[in-house]
Design a protein that fits this description.
With 488 residues, the chain is α+β, with helices and mostly antiparallel strands. Among the domains are: 66 residues, no CATH class; 157 residues, no CATH class. It is built from six helices and 19 strands. α1 packs antiparallel against α2 and α3 packs across α5. The longest helix is centred in the first third of the chain and has 34 residues. It is elongated and about 80 Å long. The termini are far apart.
Amino acid sequence: MDTISKKVKDIGRDYGMPVLCGVGVVAGGAAGYALKGKDGILPGAAVGGAVGCVVGYVWQSRLQELDRIAKEENLKITTEKLTVASAAVVTAVPEQAGLVTQIEDSGMFATGSDQLTPSGQRAVAKLAQMYAKPAATDKQAAAKESQDRRLLIVGHSDAVGNAEFNQKLSERRAKTVGKVMLQAGIPANAIYYQGAGASRPIADNSDPLLRGQNRRVEIVELANEQALVMRAQAEASNTRYLHYGTSTAAKPKAAGSARASSTPAQAKPTGRETAMPGTGVASTPGRTNPTKAAARPQVDFAGTPVASYNWTMAQSIKPKQSGFTLISSAYAAQMPMSSCEADRPRNAGEVLSMVNDQPLQRRATKDYLPGYNNRVWANLVNGHLVTVSPVSILRENAKVDRQPILQLVEDYKLPTQHKPRTMKAVANTYEGESEVLYRVFASDAQASISCMDIVFSKGNAQASQGALFYAAGGDAFVAAYKPIPATK
């Protein structure tokens, strides 16, 4: 656990009530003054203090119980308090929206099984008994809490093995924990479960000594169903999970003479650039010299070895200022980042209800981010035309609506140009405040393009950064690729 997380947890466990009582008094007094001037300070402080004390008690009591269970069952449990960001406009979700608890799976489940081991059954039963007790002591508040509260149980795996199998196994494990919650008396309509598989790593999957941290069960206690919907949507495109990839392959070692660069090699034109008719995409008659490598790539994009490339795109994406804030989140700049070359397509399952195994109801939308409504994007890489289409990104949580295909025309605009080569692809998106990382993987492992990372602006339909990855024998290479929207 990072130092910030530990300090916050210790404060919450030992001093949660007095701290939040004080916060409530200050906030309530400020609100009262804003409404009624000096006459509103004392009443506001009294109300704010009461609310703060209740929230503080809930937080403190939960953390104390979790700490006790962790010691009794020798579990590694980490917690994060979930709050609504100040910029979020959500009237039905309280600021103190919930508590996220991660339980590392160190023997809770047998390998490849969704059945709890005897020690896992005992530990989960204790957790279920804790969550079954109302956190509020007042009868009226406890009744409202019982009616409104929602529990989301998420199963997570490492990236070893088949991705689809891991996702389904993690889903069944989450449901198994949900059944124990039911047995403890928590109503079925208050429990939801989800299998995230390997899509949300918190440790390096390429390191056998660390990847086990990704095998975990997450229990999120939320104030109400709207908070549950917010949480599910926010996690789907959370840039936090870019810190680590889902590839288990060992990371390439940099060559002794290679110098790290944050910008992939850009193909240099050898002749005058001319516009491609009807698209506005520049065409280069000549091509650069091939990159020297042990094996020749299928198509020469004149890139540089991945081992000498420092991927920093995600660090330029500012986190969203609306939605949830995790109090103990580490700073992104202090953590490693992974390009698509160290990643694989990610797929988390739906959030399902314990009542009928049906997906959580959400408001369907077909509103697109401006300029990303199924358009064709293309540009040249070392004289080859590379197209990705349709680029289809919804406004809500920057979700991919339609999966793209990649198209390659070698030696574009030369007499010897090849016929278009089409490659099926899968895209994942990660949303920031003003930009979206659009990550594309070719479905065929033998395709001439492995994957792409493109940073799109949410405001002006423009790619600010981009990189294309490809293989040559057992080596990986990267070239600059910033597509532009094709005109009709």
